[in-house]
Amino acid sequence: MLHSKSVQTEIGGYISTLLRRHFGKGPTSVFVTIKFPFITAHIRGFLEPTEKSLLN
Known about the structure:
The protein is an alpha+beta fold. It has helices spanning 2-23, 49-55, and strands spanning 29-35, 38-44. InterPro entries: MpsC.
């Protein structure tokens, strides 16, 4: 189980770094859950105020 946590943390860090590198701004947090056969990433705090108003 400990190995699983480190993999989830590494994937979350990679996603955060990738978004920061491509968009200039990273998310507030990235939570990754791995449960075979799925990988779920919950990305928080990534939208800009303009994008939030467009969604509303």
